[in-house]
Design a protein that fits this description.
Length: about 260
Amino acid sequence: MPIKDCKLYIVGIGPGCPDLMTVAAQQAIMESDYVIGNTTYLDQIEPLLPGKKIITSSMGEEIARARHALELASGGNTVSIISGGDSGVYGMAGIVLEIAEKDGADGDGGAETGTQIQVIPGVTAANAAASILGSPITSDSASISLSDLLTPWEDIEKRIAGAAASDFVIVLYNPKSRNRNTNFGRCIEIVRRHRSGSVPVGLVKNAYRDGERAVVTTLERVLDYDDFVDMHTTAIIGNSESRIWGERIITPRGYHRKYDY
């Protein structure tokens, strides 16, 4: 449960389905005087917002949003800043804590400075997509964002190659956007240097939201679905032991090596 004297909650609201938002996330929002986030995420929690002071901002304004939240909290207000999925996975937790650190706050939740900060976890896109696909990430996995807006593509390439060569299941966040429509294909090309074309790949668009769709295919055929992939899609590439079962993907945990069943 959220601590009672917390002033700034960094809230992960999950994939967008109210049933998958944690009780702690709901409580944090209900306790808050101010709720800050971009319109997409605020629309998903609209039933929790009556009586709240709402501050909206757009994608690309994360630094200003984080600083505004810290300023409001330091002024004695209780504030929730909203992230989709989990706020600590490509979400707002990192930038809020970085700014708090730069501004001289302690690293113990802000207790010494009077502005306590708590990160409220949520169901991230990897978990949401995996549940729709079956059990594709039951074994070791690596999450990689294909957005090169903040991370150089050269670094992303190294991470893809390393994960592929190490036989990790790979979860791809942000595979495409309007202005970044080739990175997914480049990623698949790198992975294919290390894996069989028969390795399963799952694509999930709008997980647990209106318009949800899922595709199960293989590494050699996944680019046939290139037009399906967008910024609302999570892609999961299996490892050498992953297999397709009907419309699902199973990645064994390893029980078959030790037990008969």
